[in-house]
Automatic annotation (TrEMBL), chain A:
Residues 5-130 form the Na+/H+ antiporter MnhB subunit-related protein domain. Belongs to the CPA3 antiporters (TC 2.A.63) subunit B family. Its main location: membrane. GO terms for cellular component: plasma membrane. It comes from Jannaschia helgolandensis. This is Multisubunit sodium/proton antiporter, MrpB subunit. The keyword Transmembrane applies. Keywords: Cell membrane, Membrane, Transmembrane, Transmembrane helix. It comes from the Bacteria. It is a multi-pass membrane protein.
From TrEMBL, chain B:
Pfam families: MbhD, MbhE, Proton_antipo_M, Proton_antipo_N. It comes from Jannaschia helgolandensis. This is Multisubunit sodium/proton antiporter, MrpA subunit. Residues 113-391 form the NADH:quinone oxidoreductase/Mrp antiporter transmembrane domain. GO terms for molecular function: antiporter activity. Residues 584-648 form the MrpA C-terminal/MbhD domain. The chain crosses the membrane at residues 21-47, 59-81, 93-112, 118-138, 150-177, 189-214, 254-275, 282-302, 308-330, 351-370, 390-411, 432-449, 481-499, 544-563, 575-595, 602-620, 626-648, 660-683, 719-737. It is a multi-pass membrane protein. InterPro entries: CPA3_Na-H_Antiporter_A, MrpA_C/MbhD, MrpA_C/MbhE, ND/Mrp_TM, Proton_antipo_N. GO terms for biological process: monoatomic ion transport. Residues 50-96 form the NADH-Ubiquinone oxidoreductase (complex I) chain 5 N-terminal domain. NDH-1 shuttles electrons from NADH, via FMN and iron-sulfur (Fe-S) centers, to quinones in the respiratory chain. The immediate electron acceptor for the enzyme in this species is believed to be ubiquinone. Couples the redox reaction to proton translocation (for every two electrons transferred, four hydrogen ions are translocated across the cytoplasmic membrane), and thus conserves the redox energy in a proton gradient. It is found in: Cell membrane; Membrane. Keywords: Antiport, Cell membrane, Ion transport, Membrane, Transmembrane, Transmembrane helix, Transport.
From TrEMBL, chain C:
It is found in: Cell membrane. It is a multi-pass membrane protein. The keyword Cell membrane applies. The chain crosses the membrane at residues 6-22, 29-51, 71-96. This is Multisubunit sodium/proton antiporter, MrpC subunit. Keywords: Cell membrane, Membrane, Transmembrane, Transmembrane helix. InterPro entries: CPA3_antiporter_subunitC, NUOK/Mnh_C1-like. Belongs to the CPA3 antiporters (TC 2.A.63) subunit C family. Pfam families: Oxidored_q2 (PF00420).
Length: 139, 745, 119
């Protein structure tokens, strides 16, 4: 497990996997991807790191407790849903804002949908890591 | 009840005031409808309750329901007044009041509902509150047992009644009583409807052979016996029969069932009444007699019979509630209810005696009491009834015995020489005396002025008959057969009263039949459940799983058999290499997982299955699902691998052999799944939802990946629930690993 | 191909049930995994099988191309997979904890709640 090659390679791989997971999350609305997939990829990255460097190092790299991530993801998703209430729509109705939209170009689309998907991402990442770290440390 | 009477609060404090004022104000409120109802009007209000099930809170106020409503609220107010003194000091008095008011609500709802389903709900409310009230002295095993008995007998009858209601709904096309048109007698469902409704009514109104719960229900505090188990709840069954008489009555089976069972109940109960030594039990059996009489006369169904039944209903409610309350005072003032001990209380308890005598005269049917009027009309109706000899004979025997019972309960205890009782006899406080005396005076007033009862008796007779009828109540008109029968009744009754100690001894030799039978029945049920539990709850997990899957197999098998699914094996054309690869992956992986003895092989085989499934998703255009599946596969392998480090291998010693039964069940379920899935895939799909998502995905949700749009926009609330499950699973597993770690194993 | 899918689902169910009826709880866990795979496939297949055309709308278009795969069961299955993973992970931890506490993986010997002799 602690071979030099693995340890050296994971540093690079983990960074790539995390970037890849964020990319998957962001493109999810238009192409295959999204919060579930992004979260799982992100979790895989950290698990790889934990295998190479131990779960203690992985926890440090994560900075936050995975449980905290999971619960705050739930909160983020819920708030994104609540935002639908502000303009008087039903709860969990998506709200959109197209920054700098001009005719022919819809600009930068920002939405509560993306925030919700981010919440999904965080929950999946946090919950999976909570499990894996706890199991690994227990054993 | 050692603690009653030690009441420091006036009328039981706030709980008591509420319990008295509520029925009293309702009573006054209902009184305002009397002129309209007496004039023959029928008032109906409709409020939707569960519109999807056709349940509305329709309120039907006619003579019958108004009579009941006035009895429920009027006697209710007197009983709660009595209770405020009788139980006001009890530590659970508030609880008692809540139960009693719950019962009152249920009973009022029962008699006022126009919708049969709503009526059933209220019917069950009275059953449950009766259970709570009988078991009010929950410290006593007998009270608990009797409460359960009453609950089960009336509850099982209630279920039968519910089934009857459903059939009525099918037969008449709705659940509104007022909307049932004409008679259902010619409907093919008439017989089952009749039997089910009668089962409900007979259990509720304690007809033989379901009578045994009522005497046992006397474990309840006396005000409860006065209120529920004589004046109101037990008349629920009578009410039901009366209410449905226009729809179900008039047939031969209706006549004979009601007349025979009612008559048997009346005679049987009044004979047993003589046998009792506890005067409360005497009253319990005379209540059975009254219920039997009411059922019998509703069965007879002639104008006179219904008129007599409606008058007798009021008569009985007055005197029986008064007598029960009177017994409460005697019990309270002397400490005993033993008819062989109580003598000569008249001097010490003059007001109680007044109430007792007034009520007992009515019960004995002596002029000029209302009871005399009631009995005269019973005789008159009996003499004109089809089965004249049976009906007249039953009512004669029962009335004579009732005369004697009146003497036992209300005459003998107050005359003669004062006997020694556990407590020095003293009269009750005024809140306890008001009720019985007032009810007794009612019996006298309505007897002298029978016309006063006509505004209620006439419309309720009309309601039961389903048409108007001539009603004329009078105390005395001429010397006729009914009057002569009355005189004979007094003579025979008096003789029975004189020799009742002898009769009691003789009757005591007859062993009780029904109550021990109930005990044996309950023991049988308990033994049966014990056996069944031992059979299916073995404490072995795989046995439970086996039973679960077995049930599933039966359900699926029944579905397949009913739909007559025969799988068609289609021609396997245009299969390419990738299809075969998937098939081999999944089949080989599944088989290997099932039969390997090495856990590492199993994990690897599971991975193969997972990849096979992911390939299916890829082949059939589901990239998101396939990616998720692959990622989850990876994580599963990691988790299992981590856990395996600390878990033992798959104990191969007892799994070498093939488990034949398990294998058979497994293969059966597998084949069934295949057959059903094949059938499902031949059914044309309803694609409306999918089309909606396809059409709105870009214009409304600004997303081109429809699957993801569904997840995070259209069905975001569901997804939120799902990620909550995932978070809880993660946190739960964490808590399981960390939170329960032992200090130092 | 429909027939093959149905056959696979049947085989997965059979293997899963057989495993879940075993005494060893690890086998039960394997059965759980197989049966959730079977359930996912079953839902997926009942939504109709459309080869090689994911429910994606091309850039600039308003509607997906004709004959695209049914998106609804895909969305259902996707969450079901993740939830199934949560269930599996929790069950695994439970089994692990059970083994630590009771020292066995044999479900017949796990009788804390319903001991052999008592009621």
């Amino acid at each position: 497990m602690t071979s030099l090659i693995v340890r050296a390679a994971t540093r690079l791989l983990v960074g790539l996997l995390l970037m890849f997971s964020i990319w998957m999350l962001l493109r999810g609305h238009n192409d295959p991807g999204g919060g579930f997939i992004g979260g799982l990829i992100g979790a895989t990255g950290f698990i790889l790191y934990a295998i190479a460097h131990g779960s203690k190092a992985a926890r440090e790299a994560l900075r936050l407790d995975p449980q905290t991530i999971a619960v705050s993801g739930l909160a983020v998703a819920f708030l994104a849903g609540l935002a639908g209430l502000i303009p008087g729509d039903a709860i969990f109705t998506g709200q959109w804002l197209f920054l700098g939209a001009t005719e022919g170009d819809k600009g930068l689309p920002l939405s509560t949908i993306l925030v919700f998907d981010l919440g999904v991402y965080l929950v999946v990442l946090g919950a999976v890591l909570t499990l894996v770290f706890a199991l690994e440390e227990e054993i | 009840m050692a603690d009653h009477g030690s009441n420091s609060r006036v009328l039981g404090g706030p709980a008591g005031w509420i319990s008295i004022l509520l029925p009293l104000s309702l009573f006054l409120w209902f009184l305002q409808f009397l002129p309209a109802i007496a004039a023959g009007e029928v008032l109906v209000w409709q409020i939707d309750w569960v519109p999807s099930l056709g349940v509305s809170l329709g309120i039907l106020l006619d003579g019958l329901s108004l009579t009941f409503a006035l009895l429920i609220t009027g006697i209710g107010a007197l009983v709660t007044l009595f209770s405020s003194s009788y139980l006001g000091g009890h530590i659970h008095y508030t609880r008692f009041v809540i139960y009693l008011l719950a019962f009152m609500t249920g009973m009022l709802g029962l008699v006022l509902s126009d919708n049969l389903l709503a009526l059933f709900v209220f019917w069950e409310v009275t059953t449950v509150s009766s259970y709570l009230l009988i078991g009010f002295d929950a410290d006593l095993a007998k009270a608990r047992r009797d409460a359960l008995q009453a609950l089960l007998v009336t509850g099982i009858g209630g279920l039968a009644f519910l089934a009857g209601i459903v059939l009525i709904g099918i037969a008449s096309g709705g659940f509104s009583i007022a909307a049932i048109e004409g008679s259902l007698a010619d409907h093919p469902l008439y017989l089952p409807i009749f039997l089910l409704v009668v089962a409900g009514a007979f259990t509720k109104s304690a007809q033989v052979p379901f009578h045994f719960w009522l005497p046992n229900a006397m474990s309840a505090p006396t005000p409860v016996s006065a209120y529920l188990h004589s004046a109101t709840m037990v008349k629920g069954g009578v009410y039901l029969l009366a209410r449905l008489n226009p729809s179900l009555g008039g047939t031969d089976i209706w006549f004979w069932t009601l007349v025979v069972f009612g008559g048997v109940t009346a005679v049987f109960a009044s004979v047993l009444a003589i046998r009792q030594t506890d005067i409360k039990q005497v009253l319990a059996y005379t209540t059975l007699m009254a219920l039997g009489t009411l059922v019998m006369f509703i069965g007879v169904g002639s104008d006179y019979a219904i008129e007599a039944a409606m008058a007798f209903l009021m008569v009985h409610s007055f005197y029986k509630a008064a007598l029960f309350l009177m017994i409460g005072i005697v019990d309270h003032g002397t400490g005993t209810r033993d008819a062989t001990v109580l003598r000569g209380l008249g001097r010490a308890m003059p007001f109680t005696m007044l109430a007792a005598v007034l009520a007992a005269l009515s019960m004995a049917g002596l002029p000029p009491m209302f009871g005399f009027v009631g009995k005269e009309f019973l005789y008159k109706a009996a003499l004109g009834a089809p089965a004249m000899l049976w009906v007249t004979g039953c009512i004669f025997v029962a009335s004579a015995l009732m005369f004697a019972a009146g003497g036992i309960v209300a005459f003998r205890p107050f005359t003669g020489n004062l006997a020694k009782t556990p407590v020095t006899p003293h009269d009750g406080p005024w809140p306890m005396l008001v009720g019985p005396i007032l009810l007794g005076l009612f019996g006298l007033a309505f007897g002298l002025m029978p016309d006063w009862a006509e505004p209620l008796v006439r419309p309720s007779t009309a309601a039961v008959l389903g048409r108007d009828a001539e009603v004329d109540l009078y105390l005395f008109k001429e010397v006729n057969a009914a009057f002569l029968l009355s005189l004979a009744t007094f003579a025979v009754g008096f003789v029975i009263y004189l020799i009742h100690p002898l009769l009691r001894v003789g009757l005591a030799r007859v062993p009780p039949l029904f109550d021990p039978g109930w005990n044996r029945g309950m023991d049988g049920v308990a033994a049966g459940t014990h056996g069944l539990t031992a059979l299916i709850q073995t404490g072995r997990l795989r046995r439970y799983i086996f039973v679960t899957f077995m049930t599933l197999a039966f359900a699926l098998g029944a579905a397949i058999w009913r739909a007559d699914l025969t799988p068609e094996i289609p021609a396997l054309e245009d299969l390419r290499v990738k299809h075969w690869a998937v098939l081999i992956f999944i089949l080989a992986g599944a088989l290997l997982t099932a039969f390997t003895n090495s856990r590492m092989t199993a994990v690897a085989a599971l991975g193969v299955v997972g990849i096979g499934v992911a390939l299916v998703f890829i082949i059939f255009g589901a990239p998101d699902v396939a990616i998720t599946q692959l990622l989850v596969e990876v994580l599963q392998v990691v988790l299992v691998a981590v856990a395996m480090l600390k878990l033992p291998n798959l104990n191969p010693e007892y799994i070498r052999t093939i488990r034949g039964w398990d294998l058979a069940l497994a293969v059966t379920l597998g084949v069934m799944t295949t057959v059903i899935l094949l059938a499902v895939m031949t059914v044309p799909l309803d694609l409306r939802l999918t089309e909606f998502f396809e059409v709105t995905s870009v214009p409304e949700a600004f997303g081109r990946n429809i699957v993801n749009v569904i997840l995070v926009d259209f069905r975001a609330l569901d997804t939120f629930g799902e990620i909550a499950v995932i978070a809880v699973a993660g946190l739960g597993a964490y808590a399981l690993l960390r939170g329960t770690r032992r200090p130092n194993p | 191909m429909e027939f093959l899918i149905a056959l696979m689902v049947g085989a997965l169910v059979a293997a899963a049930v057989y495993l879940m009826l075993a005494r060893n709880v690890l086998r039960f866990l394997f059965g759980l995994l197989l049966i959730s795979n079977a359930a996912n496939l079953l839902i997926f297949a009942s939504g109709g099988l459309t080869p090689e055309s994911p429910p994606l709308i091309p850039e600039g278009a308003k509607l997906p191309p004709e004959g695209v795969a049914n998106a609804l069961p895909q969305a259902l299955v996707l969450t079901a997979i993740v939830i199934g993973f949560g269930l599996f992970a929790f069950a695994l931890v439970l089994i692990y904890r059970g083994y630590q506490t009771m020292g066995t993986l044999d479900s017949d010997e796990m009788r804390l709640a319903e001991p052999e002799d008592g009621h």
